[in-house]
Records
---
Amino acid sequence: MSKPVVKIQTLEDSPSWLDRRLVLAYIHTTYRLLLPAYDLRIGQFNAAFDAWLQGQNAGTFAFITAWNPYSQWLAQEENQRRNTLLEDHLRALSLSPLPACAAGDDQSWAPEPGFFTLGIEPEQAVEAGRAFEQNAIVFAERGKMPELWWIVQNHW
């Protein structure tokens, strides 16, 4: 896998060199598949979603967005352009991204559109997150709780 990645389920899992407020914001976010509708949280198992994954013959999934690279706010038009490029990137990998969004408990940030991508390999998910300048992605294998995968950027 493209390393390094820090896997986080709780704030205590995050290394001290990460901005704890930012990590907490990611943990306190609902990652929502739009159709069919499922809500996922970091470190919380969703049995209904897991059963749906099994029905889709998918062993993994990732939530990835291209919005607000490195948590820096961009205009909506630029974010939409970036998300279209991400969708094209995922389709080029023969994956079928499903519309989703990340809605934080803190209402000061608007929900960020992104994609649930079923059957994605861990390396593909990390590389997509890195290519679209994201701090983190959400990744899980069927039967396990979603994890926040913090992508340690090449420039660190």
Note: The mean pLDDT is 93.
---
Amino acid sequence: MTKEQKKSTIQSFDKKKLLQLWDKITKGKATDWDNGSAFEYLILRAFELEKADVQYPYSVYMDGIEIEQIDGYVYIPEFNLPVIIESKDRGKPMNIEPIAKLRNQLLRRPSSAIGTIFSKNGFTTPALLLGQFLAPSTILFWEKKEIDFALKEGFFVKGTIVKYKYAIENGISNFVINADKI
């Protein structure tokens, strides 16, 4: 599928269809999508269903050369919050490389932008430790159980705000949200 076909397909999904796709992704059965793109598009569509402004995956070019591939961008207007999205559908916990990549992307943007990284299979201890020392950049971490919760409850926008406020108040970017903590 092309990027436009993926976007058109995912934008036809309601909450029920997103939950069905999430089930396929978690079982490794989203074979009609290529290499992790189902997860990228699912996350963005979930934000879109919650009325955030969304930019689906895109590339940034300089002098005709691709310098970045961005998994997505979300703008939460009621909080004036721009968020660069990174989504990783890997079979094991995410290590530091995608976090370092996202940090570098944030360093090229206005300081008001934050990053959010979604991982189907969590994060390694070094990745979580790195996340605490990324200042001045802010990168928020989302794991599978939080994605499950946010998909079922329509909580991506509010969850991002909860995580962001916690990061501001406590300096911790891997605050885990669930029904008991909201």
Note: The mean pLDDT is 92.
---
Amino acid sequence: MATQTTTLNGVDIERLRETIHNLKGNPELAKVQHRATNEWVDGAHCRTTVSDYYGAGEDREHAQRFELHADEPDVLLGEDRGPSATEALLYALSSCLNTTFVYHAAARGVQIDELRLDLTADLDLRGFLGLSDEVRNGYSNIQVTFHVKSPAPRETIEELVELAQKRSPVFDMVTHETPVSAKLELG
């Protein structure tokens, strides 16, 4: 007899529940280490490769190797061969908020018909270029707008928007200080 998979919003509900159950029973399985390697190509163009990670208690390989290119637009002396690093941050933030929203909606049995996030972020290049110590190097603010189509009541969708912000790892990293260390290896 074949087992029927139940999905909601493209999420396998039984597998989600099983994962949550397993993590509650063995918190060590919840520890994940993401890894990336970045290489300079030329000018402002660089390439980040993501191919492996640690999860569920062991080193693992992604099904494929991912390459993400970053560059700057012509106005910032680049050749526009990829989004800038600051734009990539918006990609990471929006992707994480989107996934967090959808997973929590599925876990609560809330059907989502459409979901789009629009982000805008303001940056003053005087900080990055060292022209002013009074100007922040990074974004001064980021605005996120959730556009949601769902048969669920507005209050439920508002709760999911709040939950997406509360549970998104990237939202947490952007809104709270995350320790970052750097070291040098010559060679």
Note: The chain has two domains: 10-82, 83-176.
